[in-house]
Write a structure and sequence with these properties.
Elements: E1 6-7, E2 9-10, E3 16-22, E4 26-27, E5 30-34, E6 39-45, E7 54-58, E8 61-65, E9 70-76, E10 82-88, E11 94-100, H1 107-118, H2 121-142, H3 146-171
Parallel strand pairs: 1-5, 3-6, 5-11
Antiparallel strand pairs: 2-3, 3-4, 6-9, 7-8, 7-10, 10-11
Helix pairs in contact: 2-3
The structure holds copper (II) ion.
Copper (II) ion (CU) binds next to loops.
Amino acid sequence: MLEQAVRAGFDGSGQQVVDVTVHRGYQPDSIRARAGVPLRVIFHREDSDACSERVVFSSPHFDRRLSATGTTIIDLPAQGRGEIRFTCGMGRYRGRIELVDAGRLPILTRIRGWIHRLETPIGTALLLWLGTLPLIALLAVFALDATAAIAAAGAAFVAWVAGCLWAFRGSTRPA
Ligand SMILES: [Cu+2]
């Protein structure tokens, strides 16, 4: 059977987070998270098994009692690449967290990060301006000299920034 690692996500405030259900073991028991950023593990305990009562982490090394009902939040500090193991007090239930570099995350996750960064007026303006440059280059061949072409490129950049700032402001509804 293939064991698929569950990837930790990021919540609205940018906190890396993963949920683990405790019920005669850990679900998921294999987690992949990004190295170099803190990780919040939220345990949801769903049984009264003595084995579910404590969780022991390998790195940093500590153990914690899990709330009998509801959730227990455990914040792990930023750590380098490697593996963190977590087990119950007796070592019968086992889980592992693999910390990997951002580069090893799937391409879609990384693209989503870039797009998120481009969703600013300046990012959008820069993208649109880069799209305008070939047009200005084409004009320069037929009509413009070098100075005029640079001036046109500068004017286009200012226009895109102004336009995008205006558009983004316009799209923000007053509270
Ligand atoms: Cu146990």
